[in-house]
Design brief:
heterodimer; A: alpha/beta; 15 strands; elongated; B: 3-stranded antiparallel β-sheet; 12 helices
């Protein structure tokens, strides 16, 4: 029977100990996470939160000090568990003696692909990532963005059903990012589970349907992106606001931005927004615009991390379904 | 074991050895030696004895037993290859293990559906084959040239191929263990060459047993001698076989093989338990 989850971790922990001194760093501290098949999942967190260690634990590149990790129901320690996984590491260093074609051939062979399949698939993958004319070139000549795209092609060579990408847009220009998003979109439609570790919140918000925010090695918050950013608010834009009224409204607003004599007030509730409109009209101010707003993932992230991670109240097991 | 992956790992080691000029460096040195025998050293045989030998155009006359002379040349080549060839090979290939462990490279390798021991063993075998190719090229080349020039074909010289490669395999196991423990090419070379020197000193055990006064120091010497690889003794076995067609016994070979197995086994264990 196929496993329900592409990724399933239970109380997964990693503590680094220095070789000589008795110093310990708890990089991952009991993360329990479930990612359903076919989900697009984003792992977020500030630098040093333990995101990359968590990803490496999923691939058995790091040996855990506690807990378990399973990929499609198999313990990640088993080499077979990694067969359906395509992985693009952060700060990869592909050997520069490879050509683009040679590099894809090597890593696909390690994934167990036959020579005939590799020969057929390499031109397809190079074309997919827009490097079809660069296959014969040594990768020492590639730009950072090209290497990133080649790395993505490498991860896709053996048609994985789980794609784990660690900072996939690192060093890629905006056009390249859009291209990568389109490729990932196509894979999502085919039912490939995509797990992205990134600090680019806007990108994760654009692409992922679920996220988990990791802070100090633990899951601080998780859920569907739509639900997390659904916190309602109202933005009121007004001009010719007297200073005394501006000061009064600033106290009611959750955020204020002024530019060229126009002020944006952000209110948390409809009542606050209506009160502000009444006050502004009484003073004959010009109301330029009123709109309902939702939080961005960045707001959610800042609130979560700013609150010290909210770890104490975080659920022990986090389930995310496609 | 996945044969496709094994072949890919071996090919990758060759590719890296070529890119780092290791392969061609060893190939160039071997070629130089072959060219020396082809053009510089001239041996004229008359009725089974040498009429003359010349080196760089300087001719030395005198009837020497041709068989003895050719075996002496083969012995010299084998000794050179066994000693200096192996030292050069250790220097040249010591970086091939730490290079795989570089951050950004190793994570991707261990994320593939392969066991860790498969990855490390693939690199070890690839490294061994790089040296084996050059040893075969040099030994066969010299053997063919001297055979062609003198008409004397001594198959015992070909024994230099397995014995040289065998001792390199023993030393490479140490290189790999130090490499996975410390990620350091320099330390790999220092420890391996240090071990080589110690094993050569320990080989003088018969003399030392007479010189050492205390029982415990004699026991310590013998213990170290039997534990560590017997580089000198295996070399002696090779030379005796080439020059006198005699065989000195298997003990230095199996005990060195056991040492290599323990070193390689330890390297595989450490590698399988490491976090990257």
């Amino acid at each position: 029977m196929p496993a329900d989850y592409a990724i399933e971790t239970s109380d997964l922990s990693k503590t680094y100990r220095s070789r000589w001194r008795r110093r310990e760093v708890r990089a991952v501290d009991g993360i329990s996470l479930r990612v359903a098949r076919g989900a697009t999942f984003g792992l977020l967190g500030p630098n040093g939160a333990g995101k990359t260690t968590f990803v490496k634990l999923l691939l058995s590149a790091v040996i855990p000090t506690g807990g378990t990790a399973r990929v499609f129901g198999r313990d990640v320690h088993q080499p077979e568990a990694r067969r359906p996984v395509g992985y693009l590491p952060e700060n990869h260093r592909f050997p520069t003696y490879f050509t683009g074609t040679g590099m894809l051939d090597f890593y696909a062979a390690l994934s167990g692909m036959s020579a005939a399949d590799r020969k057929r698939r390499i031109p397809e993958m190079l074309e997919l990532v827009g490097l079809e004319r660069w296959g014969a070139m040594r990768i020492g000549k590639y730009s950072k963005g090209m290497l990133q795209r080649l790395g993505l092609a490498q991860a896709l060579m053996h048609s994985p059903t789980l794609l784990i990408l660690d900072e996939p847009s690192d060093g890629v220009d905006p056009m390249g990012r859009r291209h990568i998003r389109e490729i990932l979109g196509g894979l999502e439609e085919k039912g490939v589970t995509i797990f992205i570790n990134s600090h680019l919140l806007a990108e994760v918000e654009l692409f992922c349907s679920e996220v988990a925010i990791v802070h100090k090695g633990r899951v601080a918050l998780s859920g569907r992106v739509k639900e997390l950013i659904a916190g309602k608010g109202y933005k009121l834009t007004a001009a010719q606001v007297p200073e005394a009224l501006e000061t009064a409204l600033r106290e009611r607003a959750v955020a204020v931005a002024a530019r060229d004599g126009v002020i944006d007030f952000q209110f948390a509730t409809r009542e606050h927004a209506n009160e502000a409109i009444d006050l502004l009209r009484r003073e004959n101010c010009l109301i330029e615009a009123l709109s309902q707003t939702s939080s961005t993932l960045e707001d959610v992230f800042v609130r979560t991390i700013g609150n010290g991670g909210g770890v104490a109240g975080a659920p022990k097991a986090v389930e995310v379904t496609a | 074991m996945n044969r496709t992956a094994s072949m890919a790992l071996i090919r990758d080691t060759f590719r890296e050895a070529i890119a780092r000029k290791i392969f061609w460096g060893l190939f160039g040195l071997s070629t130089l030696m072959i060219v020396f025998f082809l053009f510089v050293m001239k041996i004229d045989i008359v009725a089974g004895a040498t009429a003359s030998i010349s080196l760089f155009g300087f001719r030395q006359h005198g009837a020497v037993d041709a068989q003895r002379l050719v075996r002496g040349v083969f012995g010299g080549v084998a000794a050179f290859l066994y000693s200096w060839g192996n030292v050069i090979a250790v220097f040249a290939s010591a970086g091939l293990t730490p290079s795989v462990l570089e951050p950004g490279r190793i994570e991707l390798l261990v994320s593939k559906p392969l066991s860790r021991w498969h990855i490390l063993l693939g690199r070890y075998v690839g490294n061994l084959l790089v040296v084996l190719c050059n040893t075969v090229y040099l030994v066969i080349g010299v053997w063919l040239i001297l055979g062609w020039k003198t008409g004397i074909w001594s198959p015992a010289f070909l024994l230099a191929i397995p014995t040289t490669t065998f001792i390199f395999a023993v030393l490479l196991a140490v290189v790999v263990l130090v490499g996975v423990l410390f990620d350091s090419t320099a330390l790999s070379i220092m420890i391996t060459i240090g071990l080589l020197i110690i094993s050569l000193i320990l080989a003088a055990k018969d003399t030392m047993m007479k010189l050492l006064s205390s029982e415990w120091s004699r026991r310590l010497w013998l213990t170290l001698y039997y534990i560590l690889p017997k580089v000198y003794d295996v070399g002696r076995i090779t030379l005796n076989a080439i020059m006198d067609h005699t065989f000195g016994g298997w003990m230095p070979i199996w005990s060195s093989a056991l040492f290599a197995a323990v070193m390689l086994g330890s390297a595989l264990y450490v590698f399988s338990r490491r976090s990257f």
